[in-house]
Amino acid sequence: MKKLIGFMVVLALMGVTGIGHAGERAGAFSLSPYLGGYVYDDAQPVRENNLLYGVRLGYDWTDSLATEVVFNYVRPQLKTSDSELDAYSYRLDFLYNFMPRSSVVPYLAVGGGGEPSGTFTSTRPTSPPTPAAASSSS
Q1: Which of 82, 86, 85 is nearest to 123 (CA)?
Q2: Is the dihedral of CA 51, 75, 39, 116 positive or negative?
Q3: Cα separation values, 128 from 30, 82, 92, 118, 122, Å
Q4: What pairing do the DSSP bridges indicate for beta strands 83-97 and 65-74?
Q5: Structural domain spans, the chain
Q6: What is the model's pTM?
Q7: Per-residue model confidence as pLDDT tens digits over 23-36
Q8: CA–CA separation, 60 and 101 (whole Å)
């Protein structure tokens, strides 16, 4: 019985905290760091799925119209070697919020972005060149 009463109290507190939420507000900025996952196809030259790190910066022009700039980072390890790839992506999204005053705000986003070429880094220590390869003849 105590567990049931405790569960009902938690539900009631969750309901009360949602009442103060005003939805989207014109002129508001937002900064949202996030953590996610990146799943690769079997055809990709990557050993396993990886964590994705990102940050969003948004601005609400009106209650219904907003803009977001998004930046992502993931570091996959390649199948063919012990190298890793620093992979970045970025995008600019324009959002239309359908019900900006509700506690759940469905939206439509349209935008574009890119993924610049990554940088390979080796996880193996590199060996110094052999003397024959390091010398040059004149």
Answers
A1: 82
A2: positive
A3: 49, 18, 44, 25, 14
A4: antiparallel
A5: 44-124
A6: 0.61
A7: 678 888 999 999 99
A8: 13
